[in-house]
Amino acid sequence: MVSATAVTGTALGAVVASLLAAPAQAVAPAGPHGAGGERTATAVAAAAPDEAGLRAILRTARSQGAPGAMARIDDNGTVHRLVEGVDDRATGRTISTNDRFRVGSVTKSFSAVVLLQLVDEGRLKLDKPVDTYLPGLLPDDRITVRHVLSHRSGLYDYTNDMFARSVSGFEAVRNKVFGYRDLVKLSLAKPRTNAPGAAYSYSNTNFVVAGMLIEKLTGHTVATEYQKRIFTPLNLTGTFYVHPDTAIPGRHANGYLTPDTAGAALVDSTKQTASWAQSAGAVISTPHDLDTFFSALLRGKLMSAAQLTQMTKWTRVNSTTSYGLGLRRRDLSCGISVYGHTGTVQGYYTYAFTTKDGKRSLTALANTSNNTSVLNTMYRTLEPAFCGKPTTRAAARAAAPGVAPMERYEDIAPSVSRD
């Protein structure tokens, strides 16, 4: 029988090291809510997480087709763990917040951190053309590193074609190994979506280019640089970049891809090279490690204050979402903003966010994808995690009116409708 579990305890250990370091939307100012468009509501931010509200959301995701769903909150050392359903449909094993899983586009934040560390080291300039470092790669030398990291390059997202049909597209690439240039070539075969810097247009191609920059400037693989600069210093022992190996090491949640045909069986998509994503989406991690990573990032443990400022220069995406350099900002109904990234890869939806001071972090996962209902439901985990109970959130909304519902979208094949 499937069980539901909620555990609250005290986190063991802490970050002990620091280093030096969708559909197209028009660019708009980040908003009127203070510097960078951010809103603050200190009293609301201090409200305890609403475990009952979170549990209800996880149960809803299960009812909508996710085999399992979980959430882990690290609230300045107090840890809340909630799970519903299974991580393996064959064995019926209960999903765990210790499970490893594919984080999808949360990988983009890791890639951006490495490049901003290279800026700190004087090896990269954000406003230099990409072709300065990768001569002849792109057809327009106006495309800068900043444009790539903020999804304003205009480079077409090759996953729109690759995954226009979810299951057949996935099976065609499940065991395939791409070179970075193969993926860029797929993008350049299509017209660009906008002139460089003219508009926000989410594209995985941008962070394939980011991976190429990392490898060109360091002379090492992205796996080596992630490990040296992030995984090891932060003691992220459950975080891996195994591309092109297909297995997730150790205990993990299996991923289940929802077919395009209603009523067809879920597809176990756990084993794959994730080579179509690489530096745009191939990291494997755990809720603990993602909470630790984003907390350390916003606390300034991974780069200089100057580069964190660059990372948090926002482009407005919609009424509640802005994008920096490999980092999302979500504006919540209670008046606070949270920072992190979403992740979609076949079989997994991830939300990983933290507060501006890094003191409260949430990682939420459902082990399915290609299911818009589940995607939208998992977005709702942010409100009870950061704003508390509904009565608290209602009071905050009255004090800060005008917050519209978020417009939601996938991180792969962002131009393909899944409704």
How would the blueprint of this fold be written?
Layout: E1 4-10, E2 25-26, H1 42-45, H2 51-63, E3 68-75, E4 78-88, E5 93-94, E6 101-102, H3 107-120, H4 130-133, H5 145-149, H6 159-162, H7 166-173, H8 180-188, E7 199-200, H9 204-218, H10 222-231, E8 256-257, E9 267-268, E10 284-285, H11 287-298, H12 305-311, E11 315-318, E12 321-323, E13 328-331, E14 337-345, E15 348-354, E16 360-366, E17 368-369, H13 372-379, H14 382-387, H15 390-399
Parallel strand pairs: 8-17
Antiparallel strand pairs: 1-4, 2-7, 3-4, 3-16, 4-5, 6-10, 8-9, 11-12, 12-13, 13-14, 14-15, 15-16
Helix pairs in contact: 2-13, 3-9, 3-10, 8-9
Strand content: 15-25%
Number of discrete helical segments: 15
Mean pLDDT: 89
Shape: globular
What is the rounded distance between the termini? 32 Å
Tally of strands? 17
Rg is: 20 Å
